[in-house]
Amino acid sequence: MPSALAAVLTDRGITVPSPIQAATLPDSLAGRDVLGRGRTGSGKTYAFLLPLVARLDSSGRKVRPKAPRALILAPTRELVGQIHEALQPLAAVAGLSTMTVFGGVGQNPQVAGLRRGADVVIACPGRLEDLIKQGHCSLGDIEITVIDEADHMADLGFLPAVRRIMDQTPKQGQRMLFSATLDGAINVLVKRFLNSPMTHEADSVQSPISTMDHHVLHVGREHRVSVLVDLTSAPGRTVVFTRTKHGAKALTRQLNKSGVPAVELHGNLSQNARTRNMAAFHSGVASTLVATDIAARGIHVDDVALVVHADPPMEHKAYLHRSGRTARAGASGTVITLMTDDQVRDVRDLTRAAGIKPTMTRITGAAHPLLAELAPGERVLVPGGLGVSTPEPSGRSAGSSSGQRRSSGGGGGGGRNASRARGKASSGSATRSGSSGDGRSQAKSTNGAAKPTGNGSRRRGAPTSSGRGAGQGGGHSPASFSSGRR
User: Which residues contact 287 (CB under 8 A, 6 or more apart)?
Assistant: First the structure.
């Protein structure tokens, strides 16, 4: 490993490679095609970023306008942003330029970035294909191509676009494919595009993670919201998954109304709203993120202590990827699935297929003592949650939120603030990727001076979950977040 890149990792406290990194780096640094399998949170991102940067730096070629030298394909905008955030410090020491390409935002800044020339482009397939067809990008100079989360690409129906894009990259270039699973759809890509690849399977997607505890709580339908409020009002960051976009919106509104600062993440949000909500969760302004399965792969936030399946997922792979938002890189975490009477058989089949043996407990409501064991710490509620802000005007970029942040007055601060202080206060990868991919998609940080509050342990911020007031009641019943409506 080049010493400059190793120094970047050391500065971030990374001194020992993960199993997938140790397995693949000797081959990828040598320029071989690599097929790597590692479950979510196993360190796949650095496994392909490190050799990509090292080899581009050593080749010494100059980037031409509209012709990037390396391409990373990822299935979601969130994952593109996460990869870009990890890449930037590595690219900086090598003097490489980077940019992102994804839909949901105006293309003009992306076109301008390609025209200037970027060594590395991280892209979602759909928007990249559009720009290629319009003549704004050529893949003829690509030296290295990476396909990340290939199995999720297949799940979302992106493989035809991936194949068309790969057909335009030079056959002699290095190609790396990383995935949590290697099934039949992935084998089609491997046989067609990888040249005698070195295959490394660091672990099975179903192998248990020793630092992750799994629990199933058998609850009455009428108690689900109160149980969720209790769990999410404990110290630490929480990610809650629902089955539908409607359910994510409704549950976010219910949590905020109950006093839990929460934001949502799903396919109906604009890029500005996604960026703003993820920035709020990264910084700790929002303690809870409510997301659908489409966002399960693109969420990486340090110190997520708890993942809750408010709605059990449809299949076991989704369960594993959702659960992988916690207990990452050796950290510990807890996964809780809420199960109602009519879901008992489905949940048992789901956990069996996932290779998980959870602890099942019937609870009668939020007063059950097990909740304090699963999510320990003093419960803190903020009236109104994140509050209400003016909806974002159509076609305009996200501005800074108008509300105030409230923080502890410097006392003990034993609630979520203590945990948030350990998190990275940042606008996250989405802000940085927006600066190079689309300037209009940047999310500005929340304005307003910090003011002491009486509770000494929570901050209140203004970013909202969808442009509509997150704290509004909205008229949804307590059980509506799993109604199945889309």
Answer: 232, 236, 237, 238, 260, 261, 262, 416, 420, 458
Q: With cut-offs at 50, 70 and 90, classify the pLDDT of residue 78.
A: confident
Describe the crossing of helices 428-437 and 271-283 by its angle, rounded to 10 degrees: 140
Q: Going by DSSP bridges, is the β-strand pair 144-147/70-73 parallel, antiparallel, or unpaired?
A: parallel
Which fold is adopted by the domain 212-482? Rossmann fold (3.40.50)
pLDDT given for residue 397 in this prediction: 35
pLDDT grade for 428, boundaries at 50, 70 and 90: very low
* Total residue count of the chain as it appears in this document: 486
What average pLDDT score do residues 417-439 get? 36
User: Whose structure tokens read 């060594």?
Assistant: 119
Q: What is the pLDDT of residues 43-58, one digit of tens each?
A: 889 999 999 999 999 9
CATH 3.40.50.300 range(s) for the chain read 3-201, 212-482
Rounded Cα–Cα distance for residues 429 and 165 (Å): 25
Cα–Cα distance for residue pair 176/124, rounded to 1 Å? 16
Whether pLDDT at 458 is above 80: no
Nearest to 405 by CA among 321, 309, 286: 286
Provide the token pair at 231: 């769990």
pLDDT value of position 302: 66
Residue 366 has pLDDT above 70, yes or no: yes
Domain boundaries 3-201, CATH class: alpha beta
C-beta atoms surrounding 165 within 10 Å: 21
Mean pLDDT of the chain: 78
